[in-house]
Design goal:
With 260 residues, the protein is an alpha+beta fold. The protein has two domains: 68 residues, Orthogonal Bundle (Arc Repressor Mutant, subunit A); 173 residues, Beta-Lactamase (2-Layer Sandwich), CATH 3.30.450.40. The strands form two sheets. Strands 6-5-4-9-8-7 form a six-stranded antiparallel beta sheet, sandwiched between helices. It holds the Pfam family HTH_IclR.
Amino acid sequence: MVTSRPTGEQRTDERDYSVRAVERVCAILNLLQESIDGVSLIEIAEATELPKSSAFRYLWTLEAYRYVERDAEAGMYRLGLGFVGMQSRQVEVLRQRARPVLERLRDEFGETVNLGVLDGDSAIYLEIVESRRSVRLAAKRGDRDPLHATALGKAIAAYLPEERVRELLVASGMPARTVNTITSPTDYLTELATVRRVGHALDNGENEVDGRCVAVVIPGTRLPAALSLSAPAARLPMQDIAKVATALRAAAEQIAATPG
């Protein structure tokens, strides 16, 4: 601890201005940022060396400000939509524009339709209109998925600078979600070139073994955003991909053109 006033020879950057409570908040947020599937209260308390009751109070406050989201069913905590930060108004406008379009696509194809944006090194789901069928693929609003294993992520990444894509892949580590997941940066960049050429991205059992998903980027927005349609592979055969992609592109253009 510094007990005397610093002399002129002391560097100001040697002073410790840290605040313990802020350090704890940063530790919690860093832990959540590193996890795609979420972190339990016990894991957070252990990692931050906080009593469980104290960790809960920190999380409760962060959740109140939407910086953390809690999955009550699974008991897991994730980063929340508050981290879209100063873009929160743009996010809300985009969500409002997209909702009726997503509902129309769901009714047309009978499958789950998603709106997502880039947040950190993941794609975060802003809006989801679930299929009415009992067996369906559906994430939850606020859920995150890796860029390298999802059609939504590929559609977004395809239009980012290559250097940034490489940085995001390093940050995520490109873990294999299934035997079909692309885990090589070189192969992934080749895949993104295909996305740009054909105008849509495909997840063919790469995030979930029996799942298939098609996605397109939303043009002309300030946010890196995309639309996707996901379904069990048995209900979304490869011969239907082009038809779904065409409908998604038209929907994305409609969202981009809607005033608001």
